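Write out the 3D structure for:
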Amino acid sequence: MKILKTMWERAERYPDRMIKVEGRFLLDLRKKVNDLERELANTKNELNRVYQELEDAKVKIEELEKSRLKNRTPSDSDLTPIEKSEKIKPTFSNEDSVKLQGNTESIYKVIVIGDPECGKTELLAKFATDISEDKNLPTVGVSILKKQITLDKINKTINLMFWDIAGQPQFYMLHRPYFIGADGVILVFDTTRSSTFSNVNNWWQSCVKYGLSGVPRILVGINNDAKSESERKIINPMVQNLSKKLNAPYFEVSLATGENVTLVFQRVAELLYAQKNEKDAT
């Protein structure tokens, strides 16, 4: 662009050296310069809009994280001796039944990660509403869903907050606030796209980077029902090897029929509750 401007300034300074052909050529160049300047201005406006969305997402994340930490049940190591005694102090109802005080509901943060358009958002939508989301609408930054899950075997209900994290590279800079503090991880790939499966390792390394190597995790393969079985790229031995490597139970789900969708989130809840009990017992 600077070269074109220089040529135009030189032509204006020495008009006697110009001929008609050169004049027409330079006028065309000037027009192109103007077009490029307009495109540059539009690009700057678009970048400003994206940066503003990212800032808004950061604020939203901070607010949700504060709310989650506020509602989390403190561990015994966080309590003073007096608070510990108050925590187990019994009270009696009219029916003389004994209840424990301080039984505040916990909220568990679970991040759902994977490549763009591998089915993360559709998986959450199917679980939450039994409605398939439009696959052409990518997640911007992060989308958050809060859901209660009942563990029938032990008659317990826990709150899970699912963070559907966008897989586009432009959001990688926000991974740190998204990942930190997560209690569990759901790793998602598309069984008809080998690249989404290969990149599961990269997504898990990001988890390790942000201190999540010890949290419960689930590996989920999305069965794209719109494609034929012949288009499947990931075979069962490959999945089992990765499942063993990551120490993550594997589930293959169908977004069309809903097969195994509820089972995935039930298993996540069970793993989180079991780990919490193990920590409380130590």
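Confidence is low (pLDDT under 50) at residues 76-104, 131-140.
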